[in-house]
Amino acid sequence: MIDKEIKEVIEGNSSAFESIIKRYENQIYKYCFFLLGNKQEAEDAVQETFIKAFFQLHTFRYDKSFSGWLYTIALNHCRTMLRKRANWKEVLLNLARWPMEHESSAEKEYLLQKSCLVEDYKMLSEIEKTILILHTVERYTFVEISNILNIRTSTVRKKFERLKNKINTKENQIVGGQLNERKIKI
Predict the structure, then answer these.
(1) Rounded distance, CA 184 to CA 120, Å?
(2) Helix axes 39-56, 16-36, angle to 10 degrees
(3) 3-state secondary structure at position 70
(4) Are 19 and 70 in contact (CB under 8 A)?
(5) Please, are residues 80 and 32 in contact by the beta-carbon 8 Å criterion?
(6) What confidence tens digit (pLDDT) does each residue in 138-186 have?
(7) Is the pLDDT of residue 106 over 90?
(8) Calpha distance 136→55 (Å, rounded)
(9) How many other CB atoms are found less than 10 A from the CB of residue 125?
């Protein structure tokens, strides 16, 4: 169905893009809001994401996930905005405020319960932060994340393992080097 709509837009039926927007706008808004932490900026980012998608639709490869392609556009736009702000702390604080959905996951519970969350998050690289958000919040697989970030799946897995180890090491240092049984569950 999405392939048909994409083809219609490419062939000149721009009104077919409205159904694409309706299908994905809520997901992209939540993602942008989570990254930016500001309702107005998230709304602007969604609008920019769909404008860029519309004008670049001819570059979409049908062998890839369309939603992943949209997330890539949104991620790149939000990264640009965040670089201008240079303040990743807001991303973390948004994560801590992120409402629990009906299904709670170990990842969200862990992230919401940690008092040292800000310090843990500050020590992560940009790519680690992105992987953390896409995997734990957006529930993308490593394969999907590798497509979004245009890196190998094995690299995503390895970075995620290092991310967990980095947080667990920091947590052990905080409790005075004692073995902490509350290991990260992501």
Answers:
(1) 11
(2) 140
(3) helix
(4) no
(5) no
(6) 778 899 898 888 899 999 999 988 887 776 666 555 444 443 444 444 4
(7) no
(8) 30
(9) 12
Pick from 169, 172, 145: which is nearest to 158 by CA?
145
Query: What letter represents residue 96's amino acid?
Result: A
Q: Taking a C-beta distance cutoff of 8 angstroms, is the pair 133, 79 a contact?
A: no
3-class secondary structure, 38: coil
Q: How far is the CA of 83 from the CAs of 32, 79, 105, in angstroms?
A: 14, 6, 30
CB atoms within 10 A of CB 35: 27
Alpha-carbon distance of 181 to 186, in angstroms, equals 14
Tell me the C-alpha distance between 130 and 144, whole Å: 13
Token code pair at residue 150: 């245009």
Which token pair is 167? 């947080």
Tell me what pLDDT residue 119 has. Answer: 59
Structure tokens at 182: 């509350």
Q: Tokens representing 125?
A: 């690289």
With H, G, I as helix, E, B as strand and everything else as coil, classify residue 10: helix
Mean pLDDT taken over the chain: 76
- Distance, in Å, from the CA atom of 22 to the CA atom of 65, rounded to the nearest integer, reads 17
Are 46 and 29 in contact by the 8 Å Cβ rule? The answer is: yes
- Cα 93 to chain center, whole Å? 15
In this predicted structure, the answer to whether residue 93 has a pLDDT above a threshold of 50 is yes
